[in-house]
Design brief:
Layout lengths: L1 H6 L10 H48 L2 H38 L7 H4 L4 H27 L16 H6 L2
Length: 171
């Protein structure tokens, strides 16, 4: 071993840095948070899935007791109900998108798109104009509050009407 060390072939292992210990602690902490988040999400998914199964079972029990015509009518109503809910969701998403575009065009925060969105474009534009007025008032009030302070002191010396700089220029 001494000969290898002498020749430079043998290298001793250096003790690990404290940064690697901190990294391990950080990794463990992140892994714990991720695990908790996944468990919460999984419980939500399971709950939604169980609710869906329960509603499907109820529908199956209803369908079993119905005649052929009643089943067809029930399925049509269910499809119409599902279609209408998807349609309403699409309309609200589209209105929110249009509101976000308009807010961006007027240099307003896009985060407020959901608040001013409406399926009727005229109502949406009216909502945006009201929002803009109130938003600008709030900004102005905040700025005036921050800029309040004492007035600058004015010198009590008599000011000469003749400015030496301007006199030097011949004015």
């Amino acid at each position: 071993m001494y000969e290898k060390k002498k020749k430079g072939i043998f290298t001793e292992k250096k003790p690990e840095n404290k940064t690697s210990e901190k990294n391990d602690e950080l990794k463990a902490l992140v892994a714990e948070y991720v695990k908790e988040a996944l468990e919460e999400a999984k419980s939500d998914w399971d709950k939604d899935f169980e609710e869906k199964i329960a509603s499907e079972r109820e529908d199956a029990i209803k369908l079993a007791s119905m005649s052929k015509d009643e089943r067809a009518k029930f399925e049509i109503e269910k499809r119409e109900k599902d279609f209408e809910s998807e349609r309403q969701q699409y309309i609200s998403e589209r209105a929110e998108f249009e509101a976000a575009k308009e807010l961006e065009a007027q240099n307003l925060p896009v985060a407020f798109a959901r608040m001013v969105a409406d399926s009727d474009k005229d109502v949406m534009l009216e909502n945006i104009s009201v929002f803009k007025k109130e938003y600008m008032k709030a900004i102005e009030a905040g700025l005036s509050g921050r800029l309040k302070g004492s007035l600058p002191r004015i010198s009590k010396e008599k000011q000469d009407d003749a400015d030496p700089f301007l006199n030097g220029l011949g004015m």
